[in-house]
Amino acid sequence: MNSRTVLIVAPTRPLASALSAWLADTGHDVDLVTSFADAKTQLAKGPCLMISEVRLGDYNGLHLALRAHAHGIPAMVIGAPDSVLQHEAERLGARYLTSDIERGDLLRAVEFLPTAAANGPRYPVATNLSFISASDVESMRDLGSLFFAPHRTLRPMAS
Question: Which tens digits make up the pLDDT trace of 77-99?
Answer without folding.
Answer: 999 999 999 999 999 889 999 98
